[in-house]
Design goal:
With 607 residues, the protein is of the alpha/beta class. The chain folds into 2 domains: 14-321, ABC transporter transmembrane region fold, CATH 1.20.1560.10; 372-384 and 413-595, Rossmann fold (3-Layer(aba) Sandwich), CATH 3.40.50. The chain is 63% helix and 9% strand. It is built from 20 helices and 10 strands. The radius of gyration is 35 Å and the shape is elongated. Bound molecules: adenosine-5'-triphosphate. This is ABC transporter ATP-binding protein. Keywords: ATP-binding, Cell membrane, Membrane, Nucleotide-binding, Transmembrane, Transmembrane helix, Transport. It comes from Arthrobacter cheniae.
Length: 607
Amino acid sequence: MTNQNTLWQSLGRLYPHVKPIIPRLILGLLCALGASMMALAIPQVLRVLINDALAEGGSARTVWVASGVVLVLGVLEAVFVALRRQFVIAPATTVEMNMRTSFYRHLQNLTVEFHDRWGSGQLLSRAMSDINLMRRWMAFGLIMLVVTSLTVVMGVVIMFFTSWALALIFVAAAVPLMVYGYRFRTSYSRVSRKSQDQTGDLATTVEESVHGIRVLKAFGRSREALEDFEAQAEELRQTEIFKARSLAHFSMIVTLLPELALGASLVVGVSLAASGDVTIGALVAFFATAAAVAGPVEFIGPLLAMTFTAKTAIDRHYEVMDSENTITDAAAPVHLGAARGDVVFEAVHFRYPDAQDHAGDVLNGIDLRLRAGETMALVGVTGCGKSTLLQLVPRLYDVTGGGITIDGVDVRSFTLEDLRTLVAVAFEDTTLFSTSVRDNVLMGSDATGAEADRILAEALEVAQAQFAYDLPEGLETLIGEEGLSLSGGQRQRIALARAIAAQPTVLVLDDPLSALDVATEERVEEGLRAVLGSTTTLIVAHRPSTVALADRVALLQDGRIADVGTHSELLARNDHYRYVIASLDDEEIAQLGRAVRPELDDEEALA
Ligand SMILES: Nc1ncnc2c1ncn2[C@@H]1O[C@H](COP(=O)(O)OP(=O)(O)OP(=O)(O)O)[C@@H](O)[C@H]1O
């Protein structure tokens, strides 16, 4: 993931973000420049003071005037520094917020396949610390780098005017500094990249451990997890030490060389003053200017380090921002009026992008037809591709061959918004957001007011999630990561209610009842049967009781639909189906015998 952009290419990518605040940055720059000029002017006042006021015949009035001027210059310098902050900080934080928002928007748009590949900590560190580093560089590093460089250049020019011979000694010291600076740039950029990547990996580890804390505790692996974390933290520490040493070394050279030049020019300067080639006032002004320039020169090291760190942050930021979203709206989207909900899979192929070369397609020519309003169970051995097939309907992944249509329209011909309004999903592994029960359930619904209340109440009833009314603050109770912890079954019922409340034309359920007890599952099924009447439903079933919900069952085997029919038909004619069903427990099979509906027909089986 290393980025080969040059420093200028990387920094240049910030331009569109910086563009709106350029006038403010220029004002900030002028203020910073003003502050530097005030600092550089003070030695010149000293020169006048020494040459005129302290010379024979000098007046006390000149001393007072010079002191007054120094005071005014000092106050002006402080005012300029304050103004610089005033001009730059607020607009730079706006840029930071906008960049973070567009980063978040982009993450939302990127495909599930992208999120499969990227560690959450890497994305977190890019969203938080990298963007923060960019803002700090924009608001401070960039301005100070320009001002510091200009200050040094102006200081050296003044030093040349004061005494060109002494100034030459200073300029000679700059040559090795530049050579060293070039080498520093390469090594520091590399270590800075390593440190930021390791920070992201560490964040991923924290995130995983926090999510998996129960597993770690239950398996008594907390100590091992801590040891792994310590090892990773130690690696980061080593990188940080190397980084700090590298900067310290560079700063030492940057400080030392001008100091050596100062020492050499002191020797030369005193002899020039003794021979009368320079005045005492000029000598004092020269060294006072050199002292005023020394600060900015030393500051260049940390500023360059900040610039290289910002470059790394920009590169990391754009690695995500440049990732293309391959699942997008159709160029000329089709809008269905009233959708019926006929779903057809035609010769559907799919393979994951990171699949091994020798591995075949997970889905290898799926042909399946769901009639509008039909409920179809999808059954197959574990890992055969049931969840994968489901995720193709709302285009969480795109088919790699063939196509899926709803009412004869390819799912890729809808806008994503339309498609995801038509299709709602509930997965076995439920995700709830840190908001109220109400907002979690109504996430996929645009209804408001009394209509929303009615939909909410109905969805909670069908999903047997009435427990939500008894939560501490009823439906307003905060759930999700930052809220009240719910049981697995409670979470599943909220997620199911969310899918129902979306009132979709096509409902895709990935074993949504797995965590429920048999009695609750039975009640949910009764409710579902009532609402599924007009909804086409494809439901992954791992339990016979879930199969009981379905009008027909599709058997997925070796990447194809091997058979379609009622449960009893498949039991009677298909060995593989019997094998899959035999792996289910006896009690559930007994329950299936009671629950399965007799009036099923399969006139439209395999397409
Ligand atoms: N994001 C992914 N990237 C690469 N391969 C994946 C990904 N998700 C699943 N797979 C692989 O695809 C195959 C099908 O997985 P899938 O989850 O669809 O099976 P499943 O039938 O739903 O399994 P189960 O019944 O255990 O839930 C498996 O071999 C799995 O390892």
